[in-house]
Fold these 4 entries.
Entry 1:
Amino acid sequence: MDRIVASRCRYDLVHLTNPLPRTIKAWRVPIDNQRSKMTPFSTLIDGMQQNVDCHSISLPTDWLQGRTAYGGLSAALCLEATHRGNENLPPLRSAQYCFVGPATGNLNISAQMLRKGKSTTLVGCDMTGDSGLAVRSTLCFGASRPSSHHYQSLVKPQVAGPDDCPAYFNWTASPSFARHFDGRLAAGAMPRTNGAKPEMSVWLRHHDIGDETSMVRLLALADALPPAALVLATDPMPISTLTWSIDVLEAYPSNSTGWWLAQATCDTSREGYSAQETVIWSPDGKPVLVARQNVAIFG
């Protein structure tokens, strides 16, 4: 429990129209000035170093959730290190991440081949930091095979485009990393919306323009939203993701705009834990990723 407590992030979900407390003066700085001091995602990834038996990276404060890396970034870094250590991997099909402790300080990421078959490759990847083991993950890569099956039951939400939706990341004291993303609320509710269902559909994109077919970029973005259960919250509260499981539905997703629609739905929230599902949609209406997440909620 000590490690979980150390990785908590407090979501202070007060709208920007409310008076700003003196303790969060940084939000008085114009957004353009804030971004000029931030590390673009592409620069962050380029800073990963190869060592004898692992890859290492130190995170700038603007990419942190409290004092630790948030789950989506940790997942993305594990995938990047896995690709660098294993050439010619087929597309990522599935991954399971267990967030054991806070990802703080200099991070070392080691990937180990578990099994290589004719079409499927399994890799185990661990991330360690100053507090010890931070992430333990298993990644499954698979080449396409001929199949007589072509079916999917997911139905894309009928929502307006991002240009016609209001801004999403407009609350004070949100985690530092949220400033790296542009968000537009397409459906559902903002956190701390009294009486609303705990679900939201939000258009998301990186402020840093890059290769939008990159699964590493998509993983970092797919976990950018707060848990859908925080729609039910009445006060700010710390949260900590415990596990994150993803299934990739499009081997090579394409995107010409940079926008992805994240549809997050809380299934249950009780006894201090929330279970939710998130579906990531491409702008042309294709489901590209489905994720399940278990979150500890301290409030």
Entry 2:
Amino acid sequence: MARSLVSRTHGVTMAASKSFYGKGIPGVNLEQLKGQLIVVEGADGSGRSTQMDLLRNWLERRGYPTVNVGLKRSMLVSRELEQAMRGNILGTRTLSLFYATDFADQLENGILPALRSGFVVLADRYIYTLMARAIVRGVDPAWIRDVYSIALIPDAVFYLALSPKILVERNLRKHAALDYWESGMDMHRTSNMYGSFIEYQRSIQKEFKAMQKHYGFETVDGNRSARTIQHALRAKIEVILNDRSDRFQEESDESDVKEGIARSITTLADGDERNQPSVRREPSARHRSTHRISE
């Protein structure tokens, strides 16, 4: 999978232009994707969902239409994936392909149409979580990156990083239990779910750190208060939205210039035609003879 094409503006890492990580979705005209794709990554308990809700409300108050996407939200396979995971018997490759199908369906039928319509798409996790989960479970990194080479490069990605100990405390406080898959129990096969959770989350964070160097996304300190994190995210997203407005203004100005030139050329052409000397045509011999007969 190719390295993300990114640029930095006012300290914010952004996609330089719309493009796919690899082969992408066939038949997609990237120039038609006028919206923005913003991703927030993070483990369960990182406060990711809270930040997404706050961002959506903030953007909509400012007049930006938004669409939310996330894991296991495909109309095609989300229910089947949820049911399959309840049995705790899915193989690693099967689980990876299940998630890839869920993602591909949302990309083609949700994300891309929304971007064409100029929406801000807020993704509650993206391919990075899916790749990290697969890699720490022993899947070949090159294979899983190729699977997700269909993905569109987001305009910005923010990863909420927290201490595994804080994550486990938040999950226990919220659910009074730890999730089988988020604890990596399918890997460790141990009765110590707490220890398995800590070990698994450390492995995931290690993989995210490696991916950060490759994909260039922003790492955000998730140990701070929700308000502080939200202010930091808004400041970074503000830069992206301003850049979008500037580009649209430039495109509009360029279009106006082209339209003005076209009008000038048309006016000149019309003027040249009006300034041409009129030529009186003599009637043909046949018409002249007919005229004399009728007289």
Entry 3:
Amino acid sequence: MGAEAIQFPIVVWVVHWLLSQIPATLAYHYGTSRPFQYNAAGEVIDGGPSWAYSTVTQWLPHELSGPAHWLVEPMRLWDGSWYRLLSIFGYNPEQMATAAFFPLYPWLMKWGHQLTGWSEETIGYIVSNLAFLGALLILYRLVSLDFNEVIARRSLWALALFPTAFFFTAVYTESLFLLLAVGTLYAARRGEWLLAGIIGLLAALTRSAGVMLLAPMAVLFLQQYGWNPRRWFPNAIPAALPAAGPLVFGWILTRSDMKFFDWVNQQWQWNRFSATPWRTFECTLQGCTAEVRQFGTTNEFYVKPIQWGWIGDILKHPTWTHFTSFEWRDWMARGDVLEFICTVGAFILIIIGLRKLPLYYSAFTIPPMIVPLLSPSSVHPLMSMPRFVLPLFPLFVMIALLVTNRKAGIGLAIASSIGLILLTMQFAQWYWVA
């Protein structure tokens, strides 16, 4: 494999970082952030910083200095605020919503701050970017092992240039989870089950989807050891370690005077409710009413259907002023079109991949796509799906297998890069993306 296995992922990482960071920095520091909206009483009801920034004054972050002012500040928004709060205050029963965020990433932010004195969000930014580089390095080797280096190169480009891939640079868990998931599967693929189990446990402490690594690990384990239980031990023990992630997290919550299953139960704070996958799509396409549990009671909400109108609107008024207006950008952000396209596109790739990809690829991808459909949000039925697909690398391997024409590949890369730049600017100015 040689030097290319190191050089090529580094090149992809640099290109990705430039396409994400430069637009974010320019938009955040020189553009206009999404304005606040007020009700008749003059109270802020929407806009600007997320709840975690704006609710409690003592939690507001200070302005960073030096390079972090330019690099980190645009990338610490939205969920980055929650991770900052956790890294400073830990899990707090007075703020039960913190239980929705798994602990490894904020722990790294806290430990890095204690070690270096740098701000917690600066450490998070560094962790995310180094983790993405590491993920690309391992992913190149894994895909080359299962296919070849040509498919590995295409897969890395497809992943790094995806329109929502800026989350790999932001203070979010996407990069760390991708690194740990790919590392787990690469170790398991090579039969290194103790290493795979340890890394898998860390993945399960990073995101709830980490426990779902048990599915592809089980596929690889049975392919290597068959169905005879006598051959399973001792490697079956470390192979099951990802199952301990939620157990450890639940224990941590109880030590913080919270409940063991609060990491599940507090999802209501994002207006999530129970539904079947087909009900979720019905709510997305047609709208629906949903009963959402809030503050110990159940309230009925109307779930707005997908809004396509912003597309026709910009075609009727194709001016720069209209394109950059708050009203149009907010309409586009709230329209759920991106969520719908990413979700449907992912399932199409999954279906095609059942015949073209190794079985453990499909086993890795399907559960994290199904579970969010069981708990849609009344705000966005397919909330965060454009972000949830990012660590599911087999989707991008499938793209690499399908796009074999060089001109088509270049055209798709350019279009995707433009989408990456535009969505990064949306994110950096407090517009909803995923």
Entry 4:
Amino acid sequence: MVIIMRKGIIGLVLIVLVAVSFFAASTAMAQDSSNATNETKTISVTGSYQLSMDPDKAEIYLGAETRATTALQSQQDNANIIAAVKSALYALGLTKADIETTSYSISPVYDYSKPCYETNCPWQPPKIVGYTTVHQLKIKTANIDKVGQYIDAAAKAGANNVNYISFGLSDSKQKTLYNQALTEASKNARDKANAIASGLSVRVKGVISANEGYVYVTPYYRSLSAGAPESSQASTEISAGMIQVSASVSVVYEI
């Protein structure tokens, strides 16, 4: 009698365990199905835009290089030229705030002995035969049309190291174009998302996230050759290139 009751109890327990296991499995499957149904579907795109604009500022890099037998003479000759260059630029309306020194150096000039091809050659140290002074200036201006005049005036005053010009945008204009490029890049991202959704026969519901990508402002550089123009030569004409502003935006849309 006891054995039969124990068997009955064990059977009942097994039935309960099977029922619980079945219920748990059914619940898990239902949750998975519900999660799959409620999973957010998305489209990820990157929009980009580039615009071009005329520069509204320029930086001219030029200077003077002098050589003399003594460091003092080289320095004095260079100082005289730079003073004349600045005076010529001031006469055209530039101020002290528009001109700054970017580099200055005085270095010896060595004369190295000719190489000896014999077996035993006496070592001869290089000799200092002179000194070179280099003074480089950066000239800032918002008068793009006068860049050529500034170069001519500096060269005629003695500048013999005319390097290059950098054209760019002022901070206010750069900020305006930067925001415009971001706006257009965002529109481009939206157009891409709509095109993809149309091809998939779905509809874009809204934005889940958006991140600013790269923003590039590409200045325009123009190299120059040194040399003071002759009086019979025409004045230097400088054509400023366009400044490129590029932006991108990454957006995740819900569909």
